[in-house]
Amino acid sequence: MKKKLGKQIEEIAGIISHLDHRDIDVESLMELDELLELLSNKVKSSKLGYPLTSPSLTLESVRHEAIFIFDRNYKVSKYTGIFDHLFYPAKSGSLHLSDLLKIEQQEVFEQKVNRLLTNKENQEFETIIHSTQGIPLAASISLELLSEKGGDELIMAGVNFSNTTMTDIKNYQQIVIENLPDIDVFLFDSDYRYVLAGGREKERFGLSNSYFAGKTLFEAFDEKIHKRLFPFYRKALSGEMADGEIRIEDQIYYIWVTPVMNFNSEVVGGTAIVQNVTKDKEVEMRLKKAKDDAQNADQAKSVFLANMSHEIRTPLNAIIGFAEQLENTELSKKQENFIHFISDSSEHLLSLVNEILILFKLGMGKIYIDKTPFNLTEVLNVIYNSFIIKANEKKLRLSVQVDPKIPETLIGDPFRLRQIVINLMSNALKYTDEGMVELRCVIVESENEAVRLRFDVEDSGMGISPELQPVIFEEFTQSSANLDKKRKGAGLGLTICKKLIELMDGQIQVTSELGVGSLFSVTLPFQKATAQEKAERESHYSLRDNLLDGKKILFADDDEYNLLLAKAVLSNWNADFKLARNGEEALNLLRIAEYDMILLDIHMPRMNGVEVVSEIKKSDQNPNYRTKVLAVTANVLKSDIKLYMSHGFDGYVLKPFKERELYNKICNVLQLTQSSAQPDQSAVLERSSGSSVDEFSLENLWITSNGDDAFFNKMIDTFVSNTRSFIAGFEDDLNHEDWNSLGEKAHRAIPSFKFFGLNMLVEQLEKLEDLALRDKVYTELPGKTSHVMSRMHEVLEQAQRAYRK
Question: Long-range contacts made by residues 164-167, C-beta under 8 angstroms, separation at least 24?
C-alpha cells in the first residue's frame, strides 16, 4: 500500500515539475486531475483511523471507499470517503447515520448492528444505497466494533461499491448533466472555447453536446445568436456574474453566467446556464392579460354602476319628489289613492335598485367596512322611526329593546349595521300580518377594548318551511314557498345581509316554524370607544319652523324635472334661490353673488359639480370661497362620495331625496338654531336614568313626525287607544288572577311608554313582568299593578292634551 501510494505521489510530482517549463499538455493535466482526486480520497480514508488509536482499525478498513464511525444510537462521530461529494455533503451539528447513508434495507442493517453489539463478531452484507440524485448503487457494508466499553461502543461501517468505479460515478454525473430538460450548461475557457456542454435544450435547434467540444462561441453559433450571447460571456471572463433574457428564434431564454477562477484568483474560464422560459413567459403574459382584463372589466363595472345609479335614481328623484309635493295639495280621495300608489311603487323600485347595486358592489369587492364612532341607540332610533308607520298601518306591535350595559359610543360601521337591521326588519314586517315584530340588542361578550353584540329580529309571521331555510340566503330566493305576489321583493335582502355580516366578521342564524314566526340572530363585533372618540350627532329639524326663509341658495342640475322639483321645494321654504342648468352657468352665478348654501349635481355638462367646487375654492377672492356646498348625487358608491368630500364638498344628499331629508341636511350643514318649540334630538330607546321625575315627553314624536301634524295626532291616537286597552287588560287579569297574561301585557306595554320618556313607569312595568313571569311572586302583583294602572290614567290625561290643532 505504501509503495503504491509513494509511486502515485512521484507521478504527481513529475507532472507538476513540468508546469514551470510550460511544456505540459492537456492530457497530462487531465491525468494530474484524476491522480489528485484519487489521492485525495485515499488520504481522507487513511487519516480517519489515526485519531481513533484503536487496534481494531486495520489496513483492511482503510481500503473501504467510505467509512462511518457511529455509536449504538447511530449518532455519527466521523465519516469520510466519496460520500463527501457524491452523496450527502457535510452538515453542521449532530448527525444521525440516516442523514448520510440511505440504505434500501434499513431493517437488515439494524439487525446486523445489533448482532455485532451482542456477539462481538464482524458483520457484512450486500445492499442498495441511493445517491442524492436518486441513483441506486449496489454496495457491500462491513461492520466492525472499534470500542467495546458497555454503552459507549463505537461501530465502524465500511462501504464498498460493487461494480462501481470512480469512472462509473463520473459517467453517472455526465448522464445527469446531459439529460437536463429545458436547460443547457456550458463550460468555456478564456478564449471563449467550449470545454464542456450539457443539457437537452440545444436539440431543439439540431445541436448535440458533442458538437460544442473544441469550438469557440463564434464557431458554434451563427452571428445573430453569438452577438446576443457574447456580452454575457465577456462579463464572466471579466470576473463578473451576469444574468438576463435573450430570444433565439421563437424561444425566450434566461441566461446566468459566472466566472471560473484558479488558485491565484485569476479568471480562466466561465460557466453558462441557459434555461428555456418561453412557457413561463407565456403564462406570465396570460396572467398579466387576465389581470388587465379583470381591471378593465372592474373599471367598466364601476362606470356602469355609477351610470346605472345616476340614470335610474335621477328620474326617480323627480317621481318621488313631485308625488310628495302633490300630497301637500288639495286632492280628492281618488287622487290621494293614485298618489299613494305612485309613492309606494316608486319606493319599491328604489328599494330594488338599491339592493341590486349593493349586491353588485359586493360581488366586485367594492364595499369596505368603516370604523367610525357611532351611537347605537341613535342608529336604532332611526330604524324604529322608519318602520313605526308601517307597523301601525298593519296594526302590529313594534318594539325595540337595548341592553343598558352596551357602551354609549361604539367603533364600527353604522351605515352597514343599519342596512343589515333594516333588511331584517323589513322582511319581518313584510311577512307578518298580525302580532308583533321585535328587535332586541344584547351583549354576548365584552372585553377591555371590544364588545360582541347580538341583534335578534323576531316576528309572529308566516314562518319559513324547513326545506327553504338552508337556501334563504341565496340570491333571488324568497322565504315564502308560494311567493305571494303582495309580498314585494327580489329576494336579495337576506343575501345582502349575509354578505355584509361576513364582511364585518359576524354570523347570522335563523330559527323558524311555519305559521308561528321567525327569529333571525346576528352577532357582530365592535370596538369600545375611548374618551376622545365621540359619535357625531345630527340634529333633526321641522319644516314648520321655516329656518331657511330668506336664505340665498343656488341649485344646479342639468335635469329639467329635477330643476322644477327644486323650484317647488325651495319656494315652499321661502328661500331666495337661483337655478343653474349646467356647471358653467353655476360658476358664473357664484362669481357675482354670495350664497348661504350651494347645491351641485355631480354629473353636469360643460363643468361637473367637482370642477365647480374646485374652482370656487381656488381663491379666497371668490365671494363663495367659504360657502357651504352639498353634492346632490345619484351615485351611491362610497368611494366616489369620499372623493367629492376631498375636493371641498361639505356633505352630500343622495337622489332620490324627500323634502324633509334635504331640508334637514341643509339645516345641519349650516348649523342653524332650532325653534324653541322644536326639541333637540333624543333617543327613542332611552336607557333608564334613575330620575324621580317621570314626565310625558313629546321629544321623540316631534322628531318622528318632522312637522307632519296629521301623523303626530295619529300617533297620539294610537298611544291613547293602546293605553286604555292595557288598563282594561290589567284590570281583567287582576280579577281572574291570570298572572301570566298580566306579565305578558306588561312586557308588551314597555316600548310605547319608553318612547314617551316615561322611564319610572317603564321600571314599574318591568317589575310586574319579572314578578309574574320569572320570580313567580304573585302576592305583590295586585298592589303594584293597581299603582301602574293609576299612573297610566295620569299619562292618558297628559297625552290627550298633546294633540296639535
Answer: 164/137, 164/138, 164/139, 166/34, 166/37, 166/38, 166/41, 166/82
